Amino acid sequence: xxxxxxxxxxxxxxxxxxxxxxxxxxxxxxxxxxxxxxxxxxxxxxxxxxxxxxxxxxxxxxxxxxxxxxxxxxxxxxxxxxxxxxxxxxxxxxxxxxxxxxxxxxxxxxxxxxxxxxxxxxxxxxxxxxxxxxxxxxxxxxxxxxxxxxxxxxxxxxxxxxxxxxxxxxxxxxxxxxxxxxxxxxxxxxxxxxxxxxxxxxxxxxxxxxxxxxxxxxxxxxxxxxxxxxxxxxxxxxxxxxxxxxxxxxxxxxxxxxxxxxxxxxxxxxxxxxxxxxxxxxxxxxxxxxxxxxxxxxxxxxxxxxxxxxxxxxxx
Length: 316
Hints:
The chain is 43% helix and 16% strand. It is of the alpha+beta class. The strands form 3 sheets. It has a 5-stranded antiparallel β-sheet. A 3-stranded antiparallel β-sheet has the order 6-8-9.
């Protein structure tokens, strides 16, 4: 749930999210993500970049959605829509992903194109699929091995780092008030998040690693003939400089939610200082539970709240 554009509520947006998650439980008070108009995005990218793309349909997964298209030579690409600040970061994104590709990380080529409503990423389509069931120990191990390649690969500017939003709202995600108003359990959770934020070290998330920032199993595509072999890792527009342990926590939350064993992920995180570990868990707890209050049904909120509570208990 990184900063995909937009934060505007629309009736169409609510209908689209209900189809994926069920009726949102947050009511009409909270902003929700507008569903992606695929044909309009392809047209805007063609007008801005002269790419000559042909619309090929919507793709499943993601929060705002993604669009399939083809280049004039027949190559398949995937388009997503992002916050305008992605434009300013285009060179940094390209540099960071390029550093990983240079050491064998399976990240696809992509470019950032300005469009009137923000930025679009045009990514070469990976011949793979998301794993549709709990990840095997073998796949978990392979993802952990990939995160090792992220270590020490970045020396980007401090301004390209991310915020954890533990004491104040993010832009369109990591909102605190939905948790305060939803239930006693979520009020308790956001109180803990803010307590962790007040005690977090000033250098929380500082580091020289390349951080994907949304490393879950919908973004880790596996080969069609081997669900334990990674075909590619996608959705890099949120990549940042920082501590790759945040990616480990993101991945661990997703493994837990899918019914897998987060033990190997937690074993890796044992080497991370406890105050940092707690800050990363608090960030993901806020991020997922807030998102589901505003976009999901009660079962979605309950599921992610259970994951957040379990990980919170692990840090205490």
